[in-house]
């Protein structure tokens, strides 16, 4: 694939790949399968798996010592890769060899807590420590420490200086900043890794293992390591994509979205707009589901059930709220998912929630893509709007009547666009005729 072929592929297929997919499909909350036959096989395998895990722990200590004793070279990577195969971690390269030796930044999707170790078995690269405290554990896990960097801005500047240093290994970065199950979709890529260099090399990673899930949301790296040693094998399939360069006038976020889409197409997934913060909010809500009372649903549509039917369980209710939250997120992409979910738990109605968020945009913490509130802050109130301009959607557009509730999705988006346009015109003092 040539450089000129990337942009047409990205632009023509993007709308088809951005499917509506609930955030619950991106993560696994339970380790064991639901299928009865697989559970039986896992139970029969458990004694063998425990013995295998104990044996592999002993071998793993030797693998760690060998990797520390030998200098970074092709010979060391080959020896450690063979020893990791004994531990049940099989790494294979698929597709044509497209690795660019001059690339300074590798961009990879994030599936397990050991992805950087797997890539290090194939090529020399460094991954900075973004979470956790620096120290022996950070070094032992194969992360690179930047002791002087105390914030994201300082870390970015330190990484830029690193990339400009000659004869150093490339950086391996995970723009998702958190793991997924590696099956449904990718989290939205952060823009800061794409400000380090004008050209990056995407790396597609697929992870498969039998009997149990590859990773779960509430598991530590120690537990993940023990489960990796317990299962018969885990297959890591690595595929190098052609390098991608930033176009003239392209912002880091646009560059990130383009690379995200290319990786999603290669992996057969969807590129979502869910962020690491949305994952944390979803996990928090999943663990602490507050019981609903009759008073919390005042004003919502009454829910009726057929005679003899049972009430839906907590899991069914969570999936229904998550599906409704995704519908609202599609209309109001700048509203945090947690704010949408809280309002849906109160109203139990998509249309009512959309109306509430639009009519009370100053109180619902609407955020722009740059991360700053789109409305005026509480400490610095905006000047009063002219009396001749009504910038909020009128009641006949987003009302509460049955007719208004059945507005098509296209009409809602058009009304929201017109609302934002009028606010922009008023804020900058533009004329209605000359405004874009």
From TrEMBL:
<feature type="compositionally biased region" description="Low complexity">
    <location>
        <begin position="366"/>
        <end position="380"/>
    </location>
</feature>
<feature type="region of interest" description="Disordered">
    <location>
        <begin position="362"/>
        <end position="410"/>
    </location>
</feature>
<feature type="domain" description="CUE">
    <location>
        <begin position="320"/>
        <end position="362"/>
    </location>
</feature>
<dbReference type="GO" id="GO:0043130">
    <property type="term" value="F:ubiquitin binding"/>
</dbReference>
<keyword id="KW-1133">Transmembrane helix</keyword>
<keyword id="KW-0812">Transmembrane</keyword>
<comment type="similarity">
    <text>Belongs to the AUP1 family.</text>
</comment>
<dbReference type="InterPro" id="IPR048056">
    <property type="entry name" value="AUP1_CUE"/>
</dbReference>
<protein>
    <recommendedName>
        <fullName>Lipid droplet-regulating VLDL assembly factor AUP1</fullName>
    </recommendedName>
</protein>
<dbReference type="Pfam" id="PF02845">
    <property type="entry name" value="CUE"/>
</dbReference>
<dbReference type="GO" id="GO:0036503">
    <property type="term" value="P:ERAD pathway"/>
</dbReference>
<feature type="transmembrane region" description="Helical">
    <location>
        <begin position="37"/>
        <end position="59"/>
    </location>
</feature>
<feature type="region of interest" description="Disordered">
    <location>
        <begin position="281"/>
        <end position="318"/>
    </location>
</feature>
<keyword id="KW-0551">Lipid droplet</keyword>
<dbReference type="GO" id="GO:0005789">
    <property type="term" value="C:endoplasmic reticulum membrane"/>
</dbReference>
<feature type="compositionally biased region" description="Polar residues">
    <location>
        <begin position="387"/>
        <end position="399"/>
    </location>
</feature>
<keyword id="KW-0472">Membrane</keyword>
<keyword id="KW-0256">Endoplasmic reticulum</keyword>
<dbReference type="GO" id="GO:0005811">
    <property type="term" value="C:lipid droplet"/>
</dbReference>
<dbReference type="InterPro" id="IPR003892">
    <property type="entry name" value="CUE"/>
</dbReference>
